[in-house]
Amino acid sequence: MSQEKIILGIDPGTTIMGFGLIKKKGAKLEMIMMDVLLLNKIKDPYLKLQKIFDKTSAIIDHYHPDEVALEAPFFGKNVQSMLKLGRAQGVAMAAALQREVPVTEYAPLKIKKSITGRGSASKEQVAGMLMQMLNLKEMPKYLDATDGLAAAVCHGLQNGMTGAKKGYSSWANFIKNNENRIDKR
């Protein structure tokens, strides 16, 4: 008998954070829900991070996912955007780690390739393929929701988590695997 697993996928962002939950039983994937957290009306960048942390915590407390899959920030031309995305990802990761939910990061290219077969797929192509895969009836208003769902599906499709970046199941595990990033002053 296959073990059932709930996976939360998050597409972090400081304007819109997309997220989706799937249930995986054996090879079968089923969407539980997907949505977005709109942050564009909040001017204070620290308040945005607090909202991301609070929303991620609330989702975890309500749905009790077994694992979290995060889209890793991509290396673009704008360093400030990269920094903001990294912070958004970090607070979402912290919310999961605080609740001892293992976290795995995936590069956007890896997520797109696992859903569509092409790393260069557009948001619309990813959303269209997810609609077919999960029998979804309508396209969401914000494609960030399907981006979050895509992270969860990508994680669900991995066998033995090959190709995934490090997963962390606790702060101690994260620190052990990232000692070179810790300031020991």
What does this structure look like?
This protein is α/β, with parallel strands linked by helices and 185 residues long. It is 44% helix and 22% strand. It contains 6 helices and 6 strands; from the N terminus they run βββαβαβαααβα. The protein has helices spanning 45-63, 79-98, 108-116, 123-133, 143-157, 171-177, and strands at 4-11, 16-25, 28-38, 67-71, 103-106, 167-168. The chain has a 6-stranded mixed β-sheet. The longest helix has 20 residues, at 79-98. It is globular. 36% of the residues are buried.
Summarize the structure.
It is globular, with a radius of gyration of 16 Å.
| Rg of Cα set | 16 Å
By DSSP, the count of extended strands is: 6
Main beta sheet strand tally, sense and closure:
6 strands, mixed
Helix content: 40-55%
Please name the CATH topology.
Nucleotidyltransferase, domain 5
CATH class: Alpha Beta
Distance between the termini: 51 Å
Count of distinct structural domains: 1
Secondary structural class: alpha/beta
Order of helices and strands: EEEHEHEHHHEH
Averaged pLDDT: 88
Beta-strand fraction estimate? 15-25%
Question: How would you summarize the topology of this molecule?
Answer:
Elements: E1 4-11, E2 16-25, E3 28-38, H1 45-63, E4 67-71, H2 79-98, E5 103-106, H3 108-116, H4 123-133, H5 143-157, E6 167-168, H6 171-177
Helix pairs in contact: 1-2, 3-5, 4-5
